[in-house]
Specification:
By secondary structure, this protein is mainly α. The chain has 6 helices and 2 strands, in the order αααββααα.
């Protein structure tokens, strides 16, 4: 019997490894992360959990114009959630997490519009962003915990609004 290589073994268990990595990241962010880390890791873990439930309930996938409708809906929801966090979080890495989700969503849109797209290209456009998100989220929470250890507590959210000045108060320019 031929011996299996590490790459073939890893390829066969990649979904389980990714799920376990997101679970560990989620649990770690619940303990060490602030609100943006908790929200993003929760959304990303829920993405994989909903995918497993989706496949278990349907016994496969629903394809329309060769695009996976269930994955498209999940990716649209993830994109909406990550965009809200990315636009308000006082961090840079949520922009990466939300940005690569655009690739996944547009991979589905591209597949709906052009059925002739190579299956490998479609799979890479909709699957690879989750691995980039895993790396970005991991680095983000590592940098967050390091920054919190060095500087102490800092704001989790940006405040783009300013309170209205009281009557008679002068507004001084800020630089």
């Amino acid at each position: 019997m031929a011996e299996l290589s590490w790459s073939s073994i890893l390829w066969s268990i990649k979904d389980e490894v990714q799920f376990a990595a997101y679970l560990v990241l989620f649990l770690y962010s619940m303990v060490r992360g602030a609100a943006p880390e908790r929200l993003l890791s929760g959304v990303l873990f829920a993405m994989l959990a909903f995918d497993k439930v989706h496949h278990a309930l349907l016994g496969g996938s629903i394809l329309w114009h060769h695009a996976n409708v269930g994955h498209f809906v999940i990716d649209l929801l993830v994109m909406a959630c990550t965009f809200v966090v990315a636009l308000h979080a006082n961090r840079v890495y949520p922009l990466w997490v939300a940005g690569v989700e655009i690739i996944s969503v547009f991979g589905h849109i591209y597949r709906l519009g052009l059925e002739e797209i190579n299956r490998f290209a479609y799979d890479m456009m909709v699957v690879m962003p989750s691995y980039v998100q895993l790396v970005a989220m991991t680095l983000g929470i590592v940098f967050h915990t390091s920054r919190r250890r060095r500087l102490g507590s800092y704001p989790s959210w940006r405040h783009s609004w300013r309170p209205m000045p009281t009557a008679g108060a002068r507004i001084s320019p800020t630089i």
